[in-house]
Design goal:
The protein is α+β, with helices and mostly antiparallel strands. The chain is built from 16 helices and 20 strands. Bound molecules: iron/sulfur cluster. Belongs to the nitrite and sulfite reductase 4Fe-4S domain family.
């Protein structure tokens, strides 16, 4: 099924501009088409706060009064708000200047990360609510990666896109280019609310209880347009899970909203509600916990807003290692925190006994790869395997054409570092699979390749102890050669440091980068600590560490040994690795 008929761009646009404008029926480009905005002019800037950053300054003053010493990042926020510093940052970048640490922090409010020394350039992280893009936006990002970056694009574990190797002179032109295709990178880094995730199969999954797309989009608009919701004590994640077949990993978020079915006899009316879970941060070995609170979907924004404002006022601004919301929850307990949220809202929230909630419907670990029937008869979604999330810009443009020609015109990124096409008619499935193969990609993955997740690692992140993406591919190649009898999906997550961007603690097998000492003089090589037994969705669990300081060259053999042990000892294929 093709996307709705493209609008015809007015004369006077060059072919490239016309391509961007085709099908662009709303937002910035629509305003341009109807004469509301000129090319090069972005959307209106967010309204100024009523009291400039008053809430943050009050919170910081409280920290100081309590005897704390503000951490460096808090001092930078106070010295110059990153939004106030925008034009200075642009001018300095345009002159080719590399940012000082405090300006690197400020740039992250605008979505750019200076990643030297690993790459002497910026990395841009976008915002894509619910991970869904139009085909022309996907192709547009590839064009921007060619014009201003390294000519390739990464899919992240927050169903988002990253572009790397952007030189200082290209920083602002890249961001301008995003506006031209109706995207933004605003607030995607630093102490801000990160890309809003939602169920990748929203609206096309016969199992789902609720379509998360309007909720993710609405929350994204809520936060990017309110300056008082930037500059939190630390980064913050929010996810919406619709109860469908593909896990959203909402339990790893600070706030997770889970669609649930409330049964007869509960304190609220039976039906679909959003359950509130709080405090997920897998890198700190904690998954979000059930608060017992259930919400009507339309209440999610107001409640999330209140939760975040309690965090803004009470989060630790002195110690970056203890500044996530989890630590306020640990110090206060859930009851006190939720009472503060209810005070802020001015009303009590509804609660239900878990005994009156239907169990979560089972997830499918292969839902993000291969061909799956949609709830719409005769249509399918098709998941494409991406080797650790990377695509060249030529591949991206060709994939966008497939979405336009054969599907509903959308690209749906997943938290599994890949994407799915949606709206593919039965009659065109074979064509799509063959066009994907022609691009050197596949829709088929068995064993560990379908659940292989790796953060940026040493090739592009200064925090990394190891080359996670490179080692992930070596491990997958090794296992595919040596454990050919593996007949169930096993998730392997490689993360380069304690920040845990690849969420190693929820993988069946998780590897976290570690420098391994190999001589008495203290020489080190890249390696990993290894954990096993993590889980998510209906089996959430933090994994247990079993090996420390394994050299990277030995890691494939350790993974092989774990898989062989599992295959030898399981009662049958129904017994999972976990
Ligand atoms: Fe960088 Fe660490 Fe995140 Fe990997 S987990 S991308 S090394 S910060």
């Amino acid at each position: 099924m093709a996307e709705t008929t493209p609008q015809t761009a007015p004369d006077g646009f060059n072919p490239e501009q016309k391509r961007y404008l085709e099908g662009f029926a709303s937002g910035v480009a629509a305003a341009r088409l109807t004469g509301g905005l000129a090319i090069g002019q972005g959307p209106a800037a967010p309204a100024e706060p009523t009291g400039p950053d008053a809430i943050h300054i009050k919170a910081q003053d409280k920290t100081v009064k309590d005897g704390g010493k503000l951490c460096e990042q808090e001092k930078w926020k106070r010295a110059e708000n990153p939004f106030d510093g925008h034009n200075r940052l642009i001018a300095e970048a345009a002159a080719g200047k590399q940012p000082k640490p405090e300006d690197n922090f400020r740039w992250r409010y605008h979505g750019l990360f200076w990643v030297a020394p690993n790459q002497v350039s910026y990395m841009a992280r976008l915002r894509i609510p619910n991970g869904i893009l139009h085909h022309w936006q996907f192709a547009g990002v590839a064009d921007l990666a060619d014009q201003h970056g390294g000519g390739y694009v990464h899919v992240t574990t927050r169903a988002n896109l990253q572009v790397r190797e952007i030189s200082p002179e290209h920083a602002q032109p890249f961001l301008d280019g995003l506006v031209d295709i109706g995207l933004t990178a605003r607030g995607s880094g630093a102490d801000n609310i990160r890309n809003v995730t939602g169920s990748s199969t929203a609206g096309i999954d016969s199992q789902e209880l609720l379509d998360t797309r309007p909720l993710a989009k609405s929350w994204n608009n809520w936060i990017i347009n309110d300056r008082s919701l930037y500059g939190l004590p630390r980064k913050f994640n929010v996810a919406f899970d619709g109860g469908g077949v593909m896990p959203t990993l909402e339990e790893t978020n600070d706030i997770g909203f889970q669609a649930i079915e409330v049964l007869d006899g509960a304190a609220v009316a039976p039906g679909v509600w959003m359950r509130l879970v709080l405090g997920g941060i897998s890198g700190h070995r904690d998954l979000a916990r059930d608060t017992g609170i259930v919400l009507k979907p339309e209440d999610c924004n107001a409640v999330a807003d209140a939760i975040i404002r309690v965090f803004i006022e009470n989060g630790d601004r002195t110690n970056r290692n203890k500044s996530r919301m989890k630590y306020v929850l640990d110090a206060w307990g859930f009851d006190k925190y939720l009472a503060a949220v209810e005070d802020k809202l001015g009303r009590k929230l509804d609660r239900v006994d878990p005994a009156h909630v239907a169990p979560r419907r089972p997830t499918d670990r292969f839902a993000h790869v291969g061909v799956h029937a949609q709830k719409q008869a005769g249509l399918n979604w098709i998941g494409v395997v991406l080797p650790v999330g990377k695509m060249t810009s030529d591949q991206v443009r060709a994939l966008a054409e497939i979405a336009r020609d054969c599907g509903d015109g959308q690209i749906r990124l997943t938290v599994w570092q890949n994407f799915i096409f949606s709206g593919i008619p039965d009659a065109r499935v074979a064509e799509v699979e063959s066009r994907i193969l022609e691009l050197g990609l596949t829709t088929k993955a068995a064993g560990i390749r379908s659940g292989l997740v790796a953060c940026t690692g040493a090739r592009g992140c200064k925090f990394a102890a190891s080359d996670t993406k490179g080692h992930a591919l070596i491990i997958a190649d090794h296992v595919e050669r040596t454990v050919t009898e593996l007949d169930v999906p096993v998730n392997v997550h490689l993360t380069g440091c304690h920040h845990s961007c690849a969420q190693h603690y929820i993988g069946d097998i998780g590897l976290i980068g570690a420098k391994v000492v190999v001589s008495e003089e203290g020489d080190t090589v890249e390696g990993y600590d290894i954990v096993v037994g993590g889980g998510f969705a209906e089996n959430p669990k933090i994994g247990t560490e079993i090996w420390k300081a394994v050299k990277a060259e030995d890691a494939p053999f350790r993974v092989e040994a774990l898989l062989r042990t599992y295959l030898a000892r399981r009662q049958g294929p129904d017994e999972s690795f976990q």
